[in-house]
Protein backbone atom coordinates (compact mmCIF):
# COMPACT_ATOMS: atom_id res chain seq x y z
CA UNK A 1 0.00 0.00 0.00
CA UNK A 2 0.98 3.65 -0.24
CA UNK A 3 1.62 3.83 3.51
CA UNK A 4 4.14 0.96 3.41
CA UNK A 5 5.85 2.54 0.41
CA UNK A 6 6.11 5.91 2.14
CA UNK A 7 7.29 4.30 5.39
CA UNK A 8 9.93 2.28 3.56
CA UNK A 9 11.06 5.51 1.89
CA UNK A 10 11.44 7.10 5.34
CA UNK A 11 13.50 4.16 6.57
CA UNK A 12 16.00 4.26 3.73
CA UNK A 13 17.61 7.16 1.96
CA UNK A 14 20.37 7.76 -0.50
CA UNK A 15 23.52 9.78 -0.22
CA UNK A 16 24.87 12.16 -2.88
CA UNK A 17 26.49 9.33 -4.83
CA UNK A 18 23.18 7.46 -5.03
CA UNK A 19 24.15 4.67 -2.63
CA UNK A 20 21.33 3.47 -0.42
CA UNK A 21 21.74 4.16 3.29
CA UNK A 22 19.94 2.12 5.92
CA UNK A 23 18.03 3.94 8.64
CA UNK A 24 20.28 4.78 11.55
CA UNK A 25 23.53 4.89 9.57
CA UNK A 26 25.58 8.06 9.86
CA UNK A 27 27.96 9.34 7.21
CA UNK A 28 30.83 11.78 7.81
CA UNK A 29 28.64 14.85 7.23
CA UNK A 30 26.12 13.59 9.80
CA UNK A 31 28.88 13.15 12.38
CA UNK A 32 30.24 16.62 11.60
CA UNK A 33 26.84 18.30 12.06
CA UNK A 34 26.19 16.32 15.23
CA UNK A 35 29.62 17.20 16.67
CA UNK A 36 29.18 20.88 15.72
CA UNK A 37 25.79 20.96 17.45
CA UNK A 38 27.28 19.46 20.62
CA UNK A 39 30.23 21.87 20.55
CA UNK A 40 28.03 24.93 20.08
CA UNK A 41 25.73 23.79 22.90
CA UNK A 42 28.70 23.18 25.19
CA UNK A 43 30.26 26.54 24.24
CA UNK A 44 27.04 28.40 25.10
CA UNK A 45 26.93 26.66 28.48
CA UNK A 46 30.60 27.33 29.26
CA UNK A 47 30.27 30.98 28.20
CA UNK A 48 27.27 31.62 30.44
CA UNK A 49 28.80 29.67 33.34
CA UNK A 50 31.91 31.85 33.08
CA UNK A 51 30.00 35.12 32.73
CA UNK A 52 27.58 34.34 35.57
CA UNK A 53 30.03 32.72 37.97
CA UNK A 54 29.21 35.35 40.62
CA UNK A 55 25.50 34.47 40.82
CA UNK A 56 24.19 35.12 44.29
CA UNK A 57 21.78 32.22 44.71
CA UNK A 58 20.08 29.26 43.11
CA UNK A 59 16.87 31.28 42.80
CA UNK A 60 18.78 34.00 40.96
CA UNK A 61 20.14 31.35 38.59
CA UNK A 62 16.75 29.72 37.98
CA UNK A 63 14.93 33.01 37.43
CA UNK A 64 17.69 34.72 35.41
CA UNK A 65 17.86 37.47 37.99
CA UNK A 66 14.32 38.37 36.86
CA UNK A 67 15.89 40.36 34.02
CA UNK A 68 14.66 38.23 31.11
CA UNK A 69 12.07 39.51 28.67
CA UNK A 70 9.05 37.53 27.51
CA UNK A 71 10.74 36.11 24.38
CA UNK A 72 13.50 34.03 26.00
CA UNK A 73 11.16 32.92 28.77
CA UNK A 74 8.51 31.79 26.30
CA UNK A 75 11.08 30.00 24.13
CA UNK A 76 12.48 28.23 27.18
CA UNK A 77 9.03 27.16 28.35
CA UNK A 78 8.15 25.92 24.87
CA UNK A 79 11.39 23.93 24.62
CA UNK A 80 10.84 22.31 27.99
CA UNK A 81 7.15 21.69 27.36
CA UNK A 82 7.43 19.95 24.00
CA UNK A 83 9.81 17.07 23.49
CA UNK A 84 11.58 16.36 20.22
CA UNK A 85 9.49 13.21 19.88
CA UNK A 86 6.33 15.33 20.03
CA UNK A 87 7.57 17.65 17.31
CA UNK A 88 8.72 14.82 15.06
CA UNK A 89 5.69 12.60 15.57
CA UNK A 90 2.96 15.18 14.91
CA UNK A 91 3.17 14.99 11.09
CA UNK A 92 2.90 11.18 11.23
CA UNK A 93 0.02 11.50 13.69
CA UNK A 94 -1.85 13.81 11.29
CA UNK A 95 -1.11 11.50 8.36
CA UNK A 96 -2.38 8.41 10.17
CA UNK A 97 -5.28 9.79 12.19
CA UNK A 98 -6.29 13.06 10.56
CA UNK A 99 -6.17 16.61 11.76
CA UNK A 100 -8.00 15.96 15.02
CA UNK A 101 -4.65 16.49 16.73
CA UNK A 102 -5.35 20.19 16.16
CA UNK A 103 -7.65 20.01 19.18
CA UNK A 104 -4.57 19.26 21.29
CA UNK A 105 -2.96 22.43 19.95
CA UNK A 106 -6.07 24.43 20.74
CA UNK A 107 -6.17 23.05 24.28
CA UNK A 108 -2.46 23.90 24.76
CA UNK A 109 -3.09 27.50 23.70
CA UNK A 110 -6.04 27.80 26.07
CA UNK A 111 -4.01 26.29 28.93
CA UNK A 112 -1.12 28.69 28.27
CA UNK A 113 -3.43 31.72 28.33
CA UNK A 114 -5.01 30.65 31.62
CA UNK A 115 -1.62 29.84 33.14
CA UNK A 116 0.02 33.09 32.08
CA UNK A 117 -2.90 35.28 33.16
CA UNK A 118 -3.88 33.64 36.44
CA UNK A 119 -1.08 31.50 37.87
CA UNK A 120 2.19 33.16 36.80
CA UNK A 121 1.38 36.57 38.35
CA UNK A 122 0.82 34.84 41.71
CA UNK A 123 4.07 32.87 41.40
CA UNK A 124 5.95 36.01 40.40
CA UNK A 125 4.67 38.03 43.38
CA UNK A 126 5.55 35.18 45.77
CA UNK A 127 9.00 34.77 44.14
CA UNK A 128 8.57 31.01 43.74
CA UNK A 129 9.73 28.91 40.81
CA UNK A 130 7.37 25.92 40.78
CA UNK A 131 3.88 24.78 41.57
CA UNK A 132 5.39 22.40 44.11
CA UNK A 133 6.82 25.34 46.08
CA UNK A 134 3.36 26.89 46.03
CA UNK A 135 1.77 23.70 47.34
CA UNK A 136 4.23 23.64 50.23
CA UNK A 137 3.75 27.34 50.96
CA UNK A 138 -0.04 27.18 50.80
CA UNK A 139 -0.60 23.75 52.41
CA UNK A 140 2.28 21.60 53.70
CA UNK A 141 5.37 19.66 52.74
CA UNK A 142 3.27 16.48 52.61
CA UNK A 143 1.00 18.09 49.99
CA UNK A 144 4.06 19.09 47.96
CA UNK A 145 5.37 15.52 48.04
CA UNK A 146 1.94 14.13 47.13
CA UNK A 147 1.74 16.51 44.15
CA UNK A 148 5.23 15.46 43.07
CA UNK A 149 4.40 11.76 43.30
CA UNK A 150 1.13 12.20 41.39
CA UNK A 151 2.99 14.06 38.63
CA UNK A 152 5.60 11.30 38.38
CA UNK A 153 2.93 8.57 38.21
CA UNK A 154 0.98 10.52 35.57
CA UNK A 155 4.09 11.16 33.48
CA UNK A 156 5.29 7.56 33.60
CA UNK A 157 1.85 6.16 32.79
CA UNK A 158 1.37 8.62 29.91
CA UNK A 159 4.79 7.86 28.42
CA UNK A 160 4.30 4.11 28.70
CA UNK A 161 0.88 4.38 27.04
CA UNK A 162 2.36 6.34 24.14
CA UNK A 163 5.17 3.83 23.64
CA UNK A 164 2.78 0.86 23.68
CA UNK A 165 0.63 2.47 21.01
CA UNK A 166 3.35 2.05 18.42
CA UNK A 167 3.82 3.75 15.08
CA UNK A 168 2.72 2.96 11.58
CA UNK A 169 -0.53 1.12 12.05
CA UNK A 170 -3.98 1.57 13.51
CA UNK A 171 -6.19 -1.30 14.51
CA UNK A 172 -9.91 -1.27 13.96
CA UNK A 173 -12.02 -4.28 14.85
CA UNK A 174 -8.85 -6.29 15.49
CA UNK A 175 -7.49 -5.69 11.97
CA UNK A 176 -4.57 -3.50 11.01
CA UNK A 177 -5.72 -1.01 8.39
CA UNK A 178 -2.31 -0.06 6.93
TrEMBL record:
InterPro entries: Na/Glc_symporter_sf (IPR038377), Na/solute_symporter (IPR001734), Sodium:Solute_Symporter_SSF (IPR051163). GO terms for biological process: propanoate transmembrane transport. It is a multi-pass membrane protein. Coiled coil: none annotated. The chain crosses the membrane at residues 32-50, 70-88, 94-120. It holds the Pfam family SSF. Keywords: Cell membrane, Ion transport, Membrane, Sodium, Sodium transport, Transmembrane, Transmembrane helix, Transport. This is Solute carrier family 5 member 8. GO terms for molecular function: organic acid:sodium symporter activity. PROSITE patterns: NA_SOLUT_SYMP_3. Belongs to the sodium:solute symporter (SSF) (TC 2.A.21) family. Signal peptide: none annotated. The keyword Hydrolase does not apply. It comes from the Eukaryota. It is found in: Cell membrane. One of its GO terms (cellular component) is plasma membrane.
